[in-house]
Amino acid sequence: MKSISILAILLAPTAVFGLLDAKFKAKGRRYYGAIADPNTLSNTQVQTLLKTEFGAITPENSLKWDATEPSRGSFNFGNGDQTVNFATSNGRLVRGHTLVWHSQLPGWVSSITDKATLTTVLQNHVTTLVSRYRGKIYAWDVVNEIFDDSGNFRQSVFYKVLGETFVDIAFKAARAADPAAKLYINDYNLDGPGNKIDQLLALVNRLKSRGIPIDGIGSQAHLILGQVGGVQAQLVRLGATGLEVALTELDIRIPKDVTSAKLSQQQNDYATVTRACLAVSNCVGITVWGVSDRNSWVDSTFPTYDSPLLFDDNFAKKPAYNGVDGALN
Ligand code: XIL
């Protein structure tokens, strides 16, 4: 009797405090993560939640091109190092985000017009970042948002100058620099059927047939309240490639004004999305794009929406948290 109650106490932390990452791992998955960077890590409540609830960290901005290589060949890893060190020193996985993206890209890159220069620049950028964090990064988003909303290749400098081969160049350089890191293609609007996901899947097949080292597909999952019903069916299609899949930037934004009815809808929506990942055996992880509603890109990007995350402005659990927790129990 006594030993049983001691055992119960020992097991209590997971059961009572509901560490999302531990529960997700108990379902055979790899991580339930969130984002960070020095600007949010400076808040001790953010640090505490990252340590208690989340098992992986994606640097929100500090590994992007404008932050890491603001001018050609001159690299800056101050914020990236701080975030990666916080994660690894606390035993957390890191998702590296992101090597090749049209946005947050310095002007000196977008003004390159010749193939040889852009190839060298691309290889050098990828090799430098991936080598620096070799052995510390679980997965890299090698290419991000390379399709536009219609499913055509986005007319980025990379595509305009190099065509589709920019993808091959980036993945090959990443693999060479850290053979153990999982290499992902990442994009948004993969939550519903349409040309975009069709084209992404077609590209993944071409990459595989050319022997390009790709390991995973990230579906950002920036979702809108009440519009999450398509997530599972599309995740099944992504998973059918045999690659790892992950929800890499999950948030579910609420059209203003926020009411308690909308917060309970959000709870259901988070539960639905969690179950969608659990329904796909190779869905290895979920990352929420923010710890608390206090720090979310939604405020500035979608000003008519609010409150997309699991914890509120004061770091208290929202019904959304219970949605995830309930789906994991
Ligand atoms: C966002 C960050 O959250 C913001 O702080 C930044 O100002 C803009 O970028 N898709 C992505 C992420 O792949 O990198 C974006 O992050 C959100 C959309």
TrEMBL record:
<dbReference type="InterPro" id="IPR044846">
    <property type="entry name" value="GH10"/>
</dbReference>
<dbReference type="InterPro" id="IPR017853">
    <property type="entry name" value="GH"/>
</dbReference>
<keyword id="KW-0119">Carbohydrate metabolism</keyword>
<dbReference type="Pfam" id="PF00331">
    <property type="entry name" value="Glyco_hydro_10"/>
</dbReference>
<feature type="domain" description="GH10">
    <location>
        <begin position="35"/>
        <end position="327"/>
    </location>
</feature>
<dbReference type="InterPro" id="IPR001000">
    <property type="entry name" value="GH10_dom"/>
</dbReference>
<comment type="similarity">
    <text>Belongs to the glycosyl hydrolase 10 (cellulase F) family.</text>
</comment>
<keyword id="KW-0732">Signal</keyword>
<feature type="signal peptide">
    <location>
        <begin position="1"/>
        <end position="18"/>
    </location>
</feature>
<keyword id="KW-0326">Glycosidase</keyword>
<protein>
    <recommendedName>
        <fullName>Beta-xylanase</fullName>
        <ecNumber>3.2.1.8</ecNumber>
    </recommendedName>
</protein>
<keyword id="KW-0378">Hydrolase</keyword>
<keyword id="KW-0624">Polysaccharide degradation</keyword>
